[in-house]
Write a structure and sequence with these properties.
This protein is mainly beta. It is 6% helix and 36% strand. A hairpin with a 6-residue loop joins strand 17 and strand 18. The longest helix is centred in the middle third of the chain and has 8 residues. It is rod-shaped, with a radius of gyration of 40 Å.
Length: 295
C-alpha cells in the first residue's frame, strides 16, 4: 500500500502504475469496488486516491489482489504583501522569515521546508543562494520555495512594503519663565503636541533621549515635568494608519533678573517712601500700573 501513515504516499499530480501481470491471464480493475470501464490490461495507471483491486483469470484460475493508494494533500501559496513600519527609525526593517512562513502556511509541520531567495530562478532551481537573516529598506519582493517531503515545490513571490511615516512639523524652542522665582516651573508635554501635528487620534510617547525614542524604550510616564534647567524632550508620534516619527522640543528655562536695590521698607501711616528697582532691566511695571524704574 502507498499510505500517508507509512510515509510512502504519492505526491499530488503524479501517476502510480499498478502491475498485476500474470502470463496468459485476463484482467478487470476496480476502484473502491466499482469496475473501471476499459481497465482490462495487466497494468493500471492511477492518479487519484482509492482502493484499487483486480480480478485475474489465469487459465481458468481466479486470482484477486488489491492495493490502497493515498496522495499527500495539495497546497498553494497566494502572492501576498506584508506591510511594515520602520519602527526603530533606522531606515532598515529586519524580517524574521520564520514568522513569514507561519503566515504563508499556518499550522504546517516539519514536513514542509521553506527557502527564500532574492532571485526567482534560484528559488526554482533550489539554489544554495537562499536568505537567512534579511532586511529591507524600500518596497521590494523576494521568492519563497515551499516543498512538502520530496514532492514538487511551489514557488511564489512575496512582497514587502514600507508604510509611510507620519509627517511632523519642526518646533521652535519654547521659553519657560520662572516668574515667581521658585527655581522650577511645571510644564505639561501634552500641551505642545499640536506643534508637531494637528491630526486626530495621535498616539504620542515622550522620551528624554533620542535613542530611547527610536527604540521606544523608557518612555516618560507622567508628562508633567518640573523644569529647572534647559531641557530637550523627544516626541514619538504615530496613528493607526501612519508609522511613527520623532521630533524634538527644546525648552529654555529662564528666570527674571531680581532687583538688588529694591528692599523692604517700614513706614509710618501718612509717610511716603521712594522705591527704586535699579537699572539694567528691559521693562518696568509696578503693581499700580506705573512704569519706570522709580516709584
Amino acid at each position: 500500500d502507498e499510505l500517508i501513515s507509512a510515509n510512502n504516499a504519492m505526491c499530488p499530480g503524479t501517476t502510480y502504475t499498478i502491475n498485476a501481470f500474470t502470463a496468459g491471464s485476463t484482467y478487470q480493475w476496480y476502484k473502491n469496488g466499482t469496475a473501471i470501464s476499459g481497465a482490462t490490461n495487466s497494468t493500471l495507471d492511477v492518479n487519484s486516491a482509492g482502493t484499487y483491486s483486480v480480478d485475474v483469470n489465469s487459465s481458468g484460475c481466479p486470482l484477486k489482489g488489491s492495493i490502497v493508494v493515498e496522495y499527500y494533500p495539495t497546497f498553494s501559496i497566494p502572492e501576498k504583501t506584508f506591510n511594515y513600519c520602520d519602527n526603530n527609525l533606522s531606515g532598515i526593517v529586519p524580517i524574521n522569515l520564520n514568522d513569514i512562513s507561519k503566515q504563508l502556511l499556518p499550522n504546517v509541520n516539519s514536513d514542509y521546508s521553506f527557502k527564500y531567495c532574492v532571485d526567482k530562478t534560484d528559488a526554482e532551481n533550489n539554489s544554495t543562494n537562499y536568505l537567512n537573516d534579511w532586511s529591507f529598506s524600500s518596497d521590494t519582493s523576494i521568492y519563497v520555495r515551499v516543498q512538502f517531503k520530496n514532492c514538487d515545490p511551489v514557488v511564489q513571490k512575496v512582497n514587502f512594503k514600507l508604510d509611510s511615516k507620519i509627517i511632523l512639523n519642526k518646533a521652535q524652542p519654547i521659553n519657560i519663565c520662572d516668574n515667581e522665582l521658585k527655581g522650577s516651573k511645571e510644564i505639561n508635554l501634552v500641551d505642545y503636541v499640536s506643534l508637531f501635528s494637528t491630526l486626530n487620534n495621535l498616539d504620542v510617547q515622550y522620551f528624554k533621549t533620542l535613542s530611547d525614542a527610536k527604540s521606544a524604550s523608557n518612555p516618560i510616564v507622567d508628562p508633567k515635568i518640573n523644569l529647572n534647567t534647559n531641557s530637550t524632550f523627544y516626541y514619538r508620534i504615530k496613528t493607526n494608519t501612519l508609522c511613527p516619527n520623532i521630533e524634538e522640543l527644546q525648552f529654555n528655562f529662564k528666570q527674571p533678573k531680581k532687583s538688588t536695590t529694591l528692599l523692604d521698607a517700614i513706614i509710618c501711616p501718612g509717610q511716603k517712601v521712594s522705591l527704586d528697582a535699579g537699572l539694567g532691566f528691559d521693562h518696568y511695571r509696578w503693581s499700580n500700573g506705573q512704569q519706570g524704574n522709580n516709584l
